[in-house]
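Hello K.,

You asked for the raw outputs rather than the summary table, so here they are, unedited. I folded two proteins back to back in the same session to keep the settings identical. This is the first:
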Amino acid sequence: MIEIERVDHLVLTVADVDRTVDFYRRVLGMRPVVFGTDRRALAFGNQKINLHQAGRKIAPAAHRPTPGSADLCLVSRGPLADVLTHLAACRVPVEAGPVDRTGAVGPMVSVYLRDPDHNLIEVCSYSGTTAPH
């Protein structure tokens, strides 16, 4: 039997790689990475998000790679109050939250926002497990 340990990387198909890199660097603190033959990615922790430019062929790829079709949940090291303060400073609207959710390892509190391609990005924290009411 196979036992999967963790996610190594995900792929986002994006309309504009530079705009996406700027957003994820500025708003979510990810590190831009260049690899291979001029490929781009965003690194965080022990993971990364590879970026595919919409309309450019990279094989193999998803069956229907489309900007705006992703729904990701990212875990913040710090409290959600700090996330909310930073999002406000970056003028990034919160679409929903804070709300109580159940994540992979238990109760968490989440906020939802959109990236430049309108992917749904959930940022959660396990450090405060009850959303303020």
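The second followed immediately with the same parameters:
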Amino acid sequence: MLLAIDVGNTNIVLGLYDGIGDDARLVRDWRMRTDARMTADELALTMRGLLGEHADKVTGISTLSTVPAVLRELRVMLGRYYSSVPRVLVEPGVRTGVPLLVDNPKEVGGDRVVNTLAAHHLHSTTCVVVDFGTSTNIDVISAKGEFLGGVFAPGIEISVDALAARAAQLRKVELVRPRSVIGKNTVECLQSGIVYGFAGQVDGLVRRIVAELKQTDSGPVTVIATGGLAPLVVAESATIEHHVPDLTLLGLRLVFERNTR
């Protein structure tokens, strides 16, 4: 079984795949909180606890980290606890097959690269991937699978945290859809601004991106949502066509297969 590990700024997502190629299926996935102070031993212990009965069935590992402090401990953990297991860490030099058509390819995070690979694997069209994480990342992929660039915007949770911290009478609220756009109390007003406001932001950016792509005769464009907070916005968005929660895990599986065959 292949263990895919996606270390993000807020959460670490684990996915366990059984099989290879087109026959591979995602057996289970887990989500744990990212802690930059976590040691290699703590990381291994927590992961083993989540894997449970599957812990001794891992025959390969594919991973990435956008958090430098955790990346260091992740390397130690892989060497200490999984030294005999084939493993791929997404970093410069790893074969992804994704051309990075940007000013400085070294700036492109591993998560954006594997999302590009996964989106191109799923769809043969030009793609726009909206990743709802710590930040809201919108990445653009050509029909040839090239990474063309994208957009960064403040993420939903950090925006809510900033608002609660700076406004004396406002507070953090449950991130759910309110009963109406026009809020009847403080909580609903905040929820409306969060849910419909971020949906409008994404739709506005995606429409501008699609309009710009049409100038280059890009053909049809597929818009995909992923990330932990995507379910909050997907239903309210007019431009998102597909919700693929395991897009990054799929990309990690594809990278592993490219580098171990």
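Residues 124-245 form a domain with the Nucleotidyltransferase; domain 5 fold (CATH 3.30.420.40).

Happy to rerun anything if the numbers look odd on your end.

Regards,
P.
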